[in-house]
């Protein structure tokens, strides 16, 4: 139990660190890294399934705190920033979609095989798509930063402009997480065999 709890805390801290560093990127990294937030929430849902009561709210709080620090650090009032509007709070269901996608995948994956890979790709596309529709749609239709008149056609055009970059960034971080998952799984399976061979 202690080992399992320690592992969960270590995973959470690792994901929180990655999100914190990359979410700070406008001021610290000069856009050298994509924001990992979307990938982090998907991976957290996968690796921390069943821990949503504490892990999800803490990651959400971190995301908002980093946004506040970045915006206020530029001498701008948080609530008057371009990206902060009533639509900002739609990040909650947006990120929840990613978390739930990762959790759904964790419950249904069946080991390291092609079926799991295909399921992972499909699940990520659906979860990321829902996240994107909610976050982009809320910003377009609710935020005062988007000039009127608004139209469904213009929104679809806006969706198309930004979808692939957001998908690519998310996919890169999830792919890196998948590589780490495969390596950790292989090492975990190799350790008992190695111990048994010595005896």
Automatic annotation (TrEMBL):
Alphabetical keyword list: Membrane, Transmembrane, Transmembrane helix
Transmembrane segments: 30-48, 55-76, 88-106, 118-142, 162-184
Protein name as catalogued: Cobalamin ABC transporter
């Amino acid at each position: 139990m202690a080992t399992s709890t320690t592992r969960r805390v270590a995973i959470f801290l690792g994901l929180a660190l990655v999100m914190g560093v990359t979410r700070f990127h406008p001021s610290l990294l000069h856009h050298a890294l994509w924001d990992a937030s979307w990938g982090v929430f998907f991976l957290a849902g996968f690796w921390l399934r069943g821990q949503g009561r504490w892990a999800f709210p803490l990651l959400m709080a971190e995301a908002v705190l980093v946004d506040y620090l970045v915006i206020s650090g530029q001498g701008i009032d948080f609530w008057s920033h371009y990206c902060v509007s009533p639509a900002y709070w739609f990040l909650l269901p947006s990120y929840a979609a990613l978390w739930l996608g990762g959790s759904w995948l964790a419950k249904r994956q069946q080991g390291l095989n092609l079926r799991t890979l295909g399921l992972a790709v499909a699940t990520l596309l659906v979860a990321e798509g829902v996240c994107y529709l909610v976050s982009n749609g809320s910003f377009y239709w609710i935020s005062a930063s988007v000039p009127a008149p608004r139209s469904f056609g213009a929104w679809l055009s806006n969706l198309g402009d930004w979808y692939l970059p957001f998908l690519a960034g998310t996919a890169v971080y999830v792919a890196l997480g998948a590589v780490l998952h495969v390596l950790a799984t292989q090492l975990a399976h190799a350790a008992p065999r190695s111990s048994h061979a010595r005896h």
